[in-house]
Structures are given as C-alpha cells and as structure tokens.
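Entry — protein

Goal — fold tokens:
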Amino acid sequence: MAQGGGRPGADASLNPANYEQIDAPLISASAVALQSAGNAFLLIFQRPRPVMDKRAHALAEVNFNETVGIVSVSPHTLKDMLLLLGDALANYERDYGELVTPYVKRRAAERGQS
C-alpha cells in the first residue's frame, strides 16, 4: 500500500491477509456542533438517544442528544477539512443530486437566498 493512505495498485493482491484493521473506534453521529476554543476548534459529534420516562415506565416522547465524540482541531486543520469535505460533497451531489437539509434551508433563509 502506498504511503499516506494510498490505495493498492492494480497489480496489488486483495488478499485479506495483506491488510489489518485500523485500531480506532467507529463513531456514528447524526449531528455535529462546532465550538471555538481559543486556538482550536471542537467538533462535538452527537446522536439522538431515546430515554425512558421513569414515572410512566415507557419511552419518553423526547430524545436527548448523546455526545459520542469530541475532536479538537487547529484552525489550519479545519481549513483543510473544509476543502476536503467540500470537494467530496460536490462530487457526491454531482453524482446523486443536491442535498437539502433543514440547516441548509434555514441558513439560506437567513442570508436571503432561496
């Protein structure tokens, strides 16, 4: 495998014995918050978590956001991430169509765009 996370070349064997899993937790999140922390930014990843209503002994009608991970990055890294994610999303939308989320709609309305 090439250095820097490159993909195996066309002649590389796809034998699973040639690879090993990355020792890192897989985190699934449906929401992210960004917080400035002086000389770093915090990316706070969350997912909805159903909770029980102890009084009713049933699922509550509300969910709470459970924080599943916090990543601290420098402003320089955040800028690089912005470019990488922007390119990846542009390619995705080119192939599958534009993504419109409630946040995208709200932000467009705040900026007077439609």
